[in-house]
Design a protein that fits this description.
Helices cover about 30% and strands about 30% of the residues. It is an alpha/beta fold and about 270 residues long. The protein has one domain (about 1-265): Acetylglutamate kinase-like (Carbamate kinase, 3-Layer(aba) Sandwich), CATH 3.40.1160.10. Bound molecules: adenosine-5'-diphosphate. The site of adenosine-5'-diphosphate has 17 residues, from loops.
Length: about 270
């Protein structure tokens, strides 16, 4: 079993990702796809006159402040436009794909964090009314039920809180939780960069291999949302996933290349 996460940043080639997935499917490989939608969410938010608000937590992580209206726009893109388009592409390629958000059948459950402590202009502030959280439980029964019937799951945030509210969760960490729950051999995280770069501005500065025990030291070069990918990798490996690869989703055969070790391979 492989868990594949494809991001939502600008430049990602979903046709190439889906073509590669259909190849895996034809060969009988078992996988779950998790996807993002950040760039498209930002575009729609601007169009609707509700520009995205990114905040930096006191611990230095960047996230989208998600009030109820933002959550609704977020769902329009993640569960609507992006999820349907990916399922559509896979169906056209003969893959028995089915799209689900973490809310459907309580696929991804977690605790809602209704307020967030942020640093803004050097000052600490608390923002209320946030619908975010972290996945803590994966409904593996539902995954096995659908996979057993031959369906390929295409999963997107939001997740659902234990109280039943939709919550925005980080896709990379959600994918890590799914990989843990399914005891996956590999977690592949595809984005619009070749992997972890020593210098974000230089695509040739790829870090090809990281030993899990040294992962923390790479937090310094992982800026912005790349930090979440490093965190997700650490969580998946600590939970027993054999290998995590951070790789490029813009190129031909992005998944096959990642499986072959092109990208940042994180394993013992
Ligand atoms: P996705 O939506 O595809 O998951 P993100 O936007 O969340 O992608 O994360 C990928 C982005 O992380 C890259 O576009 C890049 O700008 C940024 N980034 C920050 N630091 C690094 C780094 N050291 N190496 C690679 N990318 C980095």
């Amino acid at each position: 079993m492989i868990v594949i996460k494809v991001g939502g940043s600008r430049g990602i080639n979903y046709d190439r990702v889906c073509a590669d997935l259909s190849g895996l499917y034809q060969r009988g490989e078992k996988f779950v796809l998790v996807h993002g939608g950040s760039y498209e969410t930002n575009l729609l938010s601007e169009k609707l006159g509700k520009p995205p608000r990114f905040v930096t937590s006191a611990s230095g992580y960047e996230s989208r402040f998600t009030d109820r209206e933002t959550l609704e726009i977020f769902s329009m893109i993640y569960c609507g436009k992006m999820n349907t388009a990916i399922v559509e592409k896979l169906q056209a390629l003969g893959v028995k794909a089915i799209g689900l958000s973490g809310v459907d059948g309580r696929l991804l459950e977690g605790v809602r964090k209704a307020s967030v402590k942020i640093i803004e202009n050097g000052k600490r502030r608390i923002l209320h009314g946030d619908y975010t959280g972290k996945v803590e439980r994966v409904n593996t029964e539902l995954i096995h039920l659908l996979a057993g019937a031959g369906y390929v799951l295409v999963v997107s945030p939001p997740a659902i809180s234990f109280e039943g509210e939709a919550i925005n969760v980080d896709g990379d960490r959600a994918a890590a939780k799914i990989a843990e729950a399914l005891k996956a051999d590999k977690l592949i995280i595809l984005s619009n960069v070749p992997g972890l770069l020593r210098d974000v501005a230089d695509e040739s500065s790829l870090v090809p291999h990281i030993i899990p025990s040294q992962l923390d030291s790479y937090m310094e070069i992982a800026l912005g949302r790349m930090k979440k990918k490093i965190m997700a990798a650490g969580e998946a490996l600590a939970a027993g996933v054999g290998e995590v690869v951070l790789a490029d989703a813009r190129i031909e055969q992005p998944i096959l290349r990642a499986v072959a070790g092109q990208g940042t391979v994180i394993k013992a």
